[in-house]
Amino acid sequence: MTQLSGMTEIYLHRDVVDFRKSINGLMVIVEDEMTLSPFSHALFVFCNRGQDKIKALYWDKTGFCLWYKRLEKDKFKWPRKSNQSTFTLSETQWKWLLSGLDLTKMQTHKPLSYTEFR
Questions:
Q1: Do the bridges between strand 9-13 and strand 86-89 make them parallel or antiparallel, or are there none, so unpaired?
Q2: Is the Cβ–Cβ distance between 80 and 73 less than 8 Å?
Q3: What are phi and psi of 95, to 5 degrees?
């Protein structure tokens, strides 16, 4: 799941989700709470209250796929202290999240843009 070929966006739902929900229940959250289309080429990521489980939903042109990961002894560093209900992640940030890094504390180098060399 760390290889996201064909995924154009990765969206993280900030609020906890009842993990009894499966594909249809998560589709409703994507449409109603995230105001996005679950049929887009995107990965939609959800976390449970205990922050030890992640579900990721995506459309693969023939149907929905649901990916699930459970940590045995740790918790995901889920960004909760924000007014945003949906976060857009880069593929690098997705890998950081799965590796246990805190996304709110991780920053990459800012890209530079020059018009001439001196």
A1: antiparallel
A2: no
A3: -65, -40
Q: Which positions ≥6 away from 109 have C-beta within 8 Å?
A: none
What residue has token string 């989700």? 17
* CA-based nearest residue to 26, from 62, 66, 86, 83: 66
Predicted TM-score (pTM) of this structure:
0.82
Of the candidates 68, 59, 69, 64, the residue with the CA atom closest to the CA atom of residue 6:
59
Q: What is the pLDDT along the chain (118 residues), one digit of tens a residue?
A: 545 556 679 999 999 999 999 999 999 999 999 999 999 999 999 999 999 999 999 998 899 999 999 999 989 888 776 677 788 888 888 888 888 887 777 666 778 788 887 6
In this structure, are residues 45 and 58 in contact, taking their beta carbons and an 8 Å threshold?
A: no
